[in-house]
């Protein structure tokens, strides 16, 4: 497979070019893979959408909050979904125009809302109280009506996928306005009819682990609600549907499944009218655009045995794979073994615990994993970690944020790295730990 070949080349080049000389672990992003994912997403929607339909694919910044990544995706025609003032700052630093930014924070302050409206950023309100806050801000907007498109997030309460904590459309989820609670639908329709500036509906049914039919069910609910509001209004009051993200990623192999084409096909089957051009569309994919294109690469420092188990002590652990360490059954990661030169290791598989560097017993990437026997100086790679892994660094033990390098390989196989994020320095660690307060 192309992606696996590019990864192997990048590992070898990372060693040859000395990326691991100053740090015991680095993170790699395959820019060709990221571009291919963005192109696949765009093509999948182009294939099912009536010509001329406005479609904005807003990358969910939380999956990889790195300015060069946002810039790369913007260059592929994508916008950006942000869920905090910090993410908004990153999107702006990446030069993404306000008209291509969507703000979804669940607990927006009045200041955050005011700034978004002043900039012309799309705002998706989470609840009735936020809509009331917006009433006041819209009324007070200098120079007349606000430029920002405003929507409201709906929880279709369609149920959970395989990972509860990532299922955002359960009956009791904290996000959006719960649609199936008694009286809720009527109140929401009224809230929309009362506000001429409220022109969008938003739903994000959940992340990893949600089956396509459940995602499609949520979108069907969203579309039906828009039709109901528009029928009551007597015109196209709701003109845009934001259907969120959530396409799951296959962590078991290099295969990229399910695909965006399968996702678009499932939606088209469940809600054919979604694509007929009567609504503009917004998507908010995160994980599926990035996960397969990121690799953590770390040295094995020591190997030993304890109680009959083999243990490899590596530099990749809880700081870059928090979820795997705390919930290994929900988030198993593949581990690939390379020798000190970055050549894939061969040899009979041997059961080994692969441990991280942090000072707690649970800092394990895998237990009894069958791998060619690891030795000090070897490397382990964690593929599929481009979203919500090393980009969601966990600062326990003051382990520094590792560097992130985007890479490209030319036709001759020469790999070039570009620094996307430098490693956190000791001075930064000390300053962030209050060390520069001088008292
Ligand atoms: N839009 C909204 C409003 C979201 O809340 C999310 C993810 C997305 C879009 C992007 O979903 P994706 O396409 O990436 O599945 N911390 C978790 C991930 C939580 C994702 C939450 N929201 C993790 O570590 O995997």
From TrEMBL:
Could you tell me which PANTHER family the record lists for this protein? DIAMINOPIMELATE DECARBOXYLASE (PTHR43727), GROUP IV DECARBOXYLASE (PTHR43727:SF3)
Q: Which organism is it from?
A: Streptomyces racemochromogenes
Q: Name one Pfam family in it.
A: Orn_DAP_Arg_deC
Q: Does the keyword Transmembrane helix apply?
A: no
Designated name of the protein: Diaminopimelate decarboxylase
Per the database record, which ranges form the Orn/DAP/Arg decarboxylase 2 N-terminal domain? 54-290
Q: Which family does it belong to?
A: Belongs to the Orn/Lys/Arg decarboxylase class-II family.
Give the matching InterPro entries: Ala_racemase/Decarboxylase_C, DAP_deCOOHase_LysA, De-COase2_C, De-COase2_CS, De-COase2_N, Orn/DAP/Arg_de-COase, PLP-binding_barrel
Domain named Orn/DAP/Arg decarboxylase 2 C-terminal: which ranges?
Answer: 292-386
* Cofactor(s) annotated in UniProt: pyridoxal 5'-phosphate
């Amino acid at each position: 497979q192309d992606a696996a070949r590019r990864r192997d080349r990048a590992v070898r080049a990372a060693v040859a070019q000395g990326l691991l000389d100053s740090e015991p672990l680095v993170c790699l992003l395959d820019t060709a893979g990221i571009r291919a994912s963005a192109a696949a997403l765009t093509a999948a929607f182009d294939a099912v959408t009536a010509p001329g339909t406005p479609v904005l694919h807003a990358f969910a910044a939380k999956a990889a909050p790195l300015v060069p990544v946002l810039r790369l995706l913007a260059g592929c025609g994508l916008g950006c979904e942000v869920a905090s003032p910090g993410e908004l700052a990153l999107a702006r630093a990446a030069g993404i125009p306000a008209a291509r930014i969507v703000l979804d924070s669940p607990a927006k302050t009045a200041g955050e809302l005011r700034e978004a409206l002043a900039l012309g950023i799309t705002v998706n309100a989470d609840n009735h109280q936020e809509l009331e806050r917006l009433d006041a801000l819209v009324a007070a907007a200098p120079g007349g009506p606000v430029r920002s498109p405003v929507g409201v997030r709906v929880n279709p309460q369609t149920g959970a996928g395989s990972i509860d904590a990532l299922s955002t459309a359960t009956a009791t989820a904290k996000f959006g306005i719960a649609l199936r609670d008694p009286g809720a639908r009527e109140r929401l329709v009224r809230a929309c009819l009362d506000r001429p500036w409220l022109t969008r509906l938003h739903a994000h049914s959940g992340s990893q682990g949600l089956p396509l039919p459940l995602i499609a069910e949520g979108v069907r609910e969203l579309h039906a609600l828009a039709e109901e509001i528009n029928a009551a209004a007597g015109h196209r009051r709701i003109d845009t549907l934001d259907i969120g993200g959530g396409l799951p990623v296959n962590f078991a192999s290099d295969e990229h499944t399910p695909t965006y084409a399968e996702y678009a096909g499932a939606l088209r089957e469940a809600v054919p009218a979604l694509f007929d051009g009567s609504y503009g569309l917004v998507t908010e994919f995160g994980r599926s655009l990035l996960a397969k294109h990121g690799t953590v690469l770390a040295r094995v420092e020591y190997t030993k045995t304890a109680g009959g188990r083999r243990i490899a002590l590596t530099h990749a652990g809880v700081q870059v794979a928090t979820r795997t360490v705390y919930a290994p059954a929900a988030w198993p990661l593949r581990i690939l073994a390379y020798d000190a030169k970055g050549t894939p290791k061969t040899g009979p598989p041997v059961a080994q615990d692969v441990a991280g560097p942090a000072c707690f017993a649970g800092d394990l990437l895998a237990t009894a994993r069958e791998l060619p026997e690891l030795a000090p100086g070897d490397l382990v790679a964690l593929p599929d970690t481009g979203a919500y892994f090393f980009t969601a660094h966990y600062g326990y033990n003051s382990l520094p944020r590792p560097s992130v390098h985007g890479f490209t390989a030319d036709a001759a196989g020469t790999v070039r790295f570009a620094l996307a994020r430098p490693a956190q320095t000791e001075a930064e660690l000390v300053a962030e730990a209050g060390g520069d307060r001088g008292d």
